[in-house]
Specification:
Elements lengths: L3 H39 L7 H30 L1 H19 L5 H15 L2 H12 L5 H12 L2 H11 L2 H18 L7 H7 L15 H12 L2 H11 L2 H7 L8 H26 L2 H20 L6 H14 L3 H10 L3 H17 L1 H14 L2 H22 L14
Helix pairs in contact: 1-2, 1-4, 1-5, 1-6, 1-7, 1-8, 1-13, 2-3, 2-4, 2-17, 3-4, 3-5, 3-8, 5-6, 5-16, 5-17, 6-13, 6-16, 7-13, 10-17, 10-19, 11-19, 13-14, 13-15, 14-15, 14-19, 16-17, 18-19
């Protein structure tokens, strides 16, 4: 039997590893958005084709996240959370190193697809492990710490890309991931998973999430509550140079700087959202507050005619803060399902949210052609927020819920 001291040590090690894992995950997830213009230009893409090539590559990365969500989620419930943590980081680390050697758009896209598959497993497995290790009263603090530290990986990505070439930025991300594998040695598997593994109940079957109407709706609502996040980061910030031009900005807005400031804001927002949830004993309330806040800030951004780089920097930070509910969302997903489906739900749900950027970008591009880029951004943001708020209203509060059970 473990002593309380050993248990505390293991808990802190799990928090450290999950936090650093998410740090590297975010670094590798956003590095393309930061080096998009420079890297595509260097491999021969003409200036007029950078936006289209960028959308193609980011959609391939998001498709990888969707595929990886299925793979790592089911593996996490069948074989354990730790195996997913090791396997996913190994795959995306090698892929990011390979990204430093690309010389064509198609090869770039294929490797981002593979990296996306690897990136899909990191957060879900980490949050599941933390949620099952900490007490039900304090697990919100654990996931808050993981997210608060993890999203700073975006700031690291910006500074590395600022001072080194884009190829070296990819090498750095891959190298950090491989180093993290060494730290993970010695982590103890979730006790809840071990207990569930001894039973004959079905584990890690994705279709079980749709076995009943109630469970299927529960899962769909979990996905929908976070739809606006990746529209804000993946389009409104990533395409800030194009949006700035439409807003008559006096000079080109920096997407890389915007992403850095956005994620610094997100880091702080994650902490604030976590504290709101703990104080109010309601994760739904935290989600409601942040959804309304994000809609307001985005509308201010889209109405900023003549936006300056300084104003954009402030708004990028504020937009990041307002979508700082990612950890709260993933925690909600982990609390909605039993141990035999928890990793499947917690890993696939956030990757469906990330993957939803693909149809969202198609809708956005369609509306851009029908109207203009600013009007299209307004419509999509309002639509996604409305869907998210409805989904929040349909989910049951999961704060303080006992997670030691299985789904039949």
């Amino acid at each position: 039997m473990q002593t309380p001291t050993t248990s505390r040590k293991n808990l802190w090690l799990i928090l450290l590893v999950a936090s650093l894992g998410y740090f590297v995950d975010i670094y590798d997830l956003v590095i393309f958005s930061i080096v998009r213009t420079q890297s595509l230009s260097d491999i021969g893409v003409a200036e007029g084709g950078i936006r289209d090539a960028g959308m193609y590559i980011i959609n391939m990365q998001m498709a990888g996240l969707l595929i990886g969500g299925f793979i790592w989620g089911t593996l996490g419930d069948k074989f354990g959370r730790l195996r997913v943590l090791f396997g996913s980081i190994l795959l995306y680390s090698v892929a990011n190193i390979a990204n430093g050697f690309v010389h064509s758009v198609d090869m770039y896209a294929i490797i981002r697809l593979i990296a996306g598959i690897g990136l899909a497993g990191e957060l879900g497995a980490g949050i599941t492990l933390v949620s099952e290790t900490m007490s039900k009263e304090k697990r919100g603090y654990g996931t808050m710490i993981v997210a608060g530290i993890g999203v700073l990986g975006a700031a690291a990505a910006f500074f590395v890309a600022e001072y080194f070439s884009w190829r070296n930025a990819y090498f750095t991300g891959g190298g950090m991931g491989l180093l993290l594998l060494l730290i993970r040695v010695g982590i103890i598997e979730s006790g809840m998973f071990k207990k569930a593994a001894e039973t004959t109940v079905a584990k890690g079957r994705f279709l079980m999430l749709f076995a009943t109407r109630e469970r299927a709706l529960r899962y769909i609502y979990c996905i929908c509550i976070s739809l606006p996040i990746w529209f804000v980061v993946g389009i409104l910030i990533t395409q800030s140079p194009e949006l700035g031009k439409a807003l008559n900005a006096p000079e080109t807005l920096s997407a890389g700087r915007g992403i850095m400031l956005c994620y610094i804001g997100t880091s702080i927002g994650e902490v604030v959202a976590g504290f709101i949830a703990q104080w109010a004993k309601s994760r739904r309330l935290a989600m409601l507050v942040f959804h309304i806040m994000s809609l307001i800030v985005v509308c201010i951004y889209l109405a900023s005619d003549g936006i300056t780089p300084e104003k954009f920097a402030i708004l990028a930070f504020c937009m990041g803060f307002s979508v700082g509910y990612w950890a709260t969302f993933v925690t909600i997903a982990s609390e909605q399902f039993g141990t035999n489906l928890r990793a499947t739900a917690t890993t696939t749900a956030p990757n469906f949210v990330r993957g939803a950027l693909i149809p969202t970008s198609f809708l956005f591009e369609f509306l851009v052609r029908q109207t203009d880029i600013i009007t299209a951004a307004y419509i999509v943001m309002i639509l996604l927020t409305a869907v998210a708020l409805f989904a929040v209203s349909q989910l049951k509060e999961s704060f303080n819920k006992d997670l030691d059970y299985v789904e039949e």
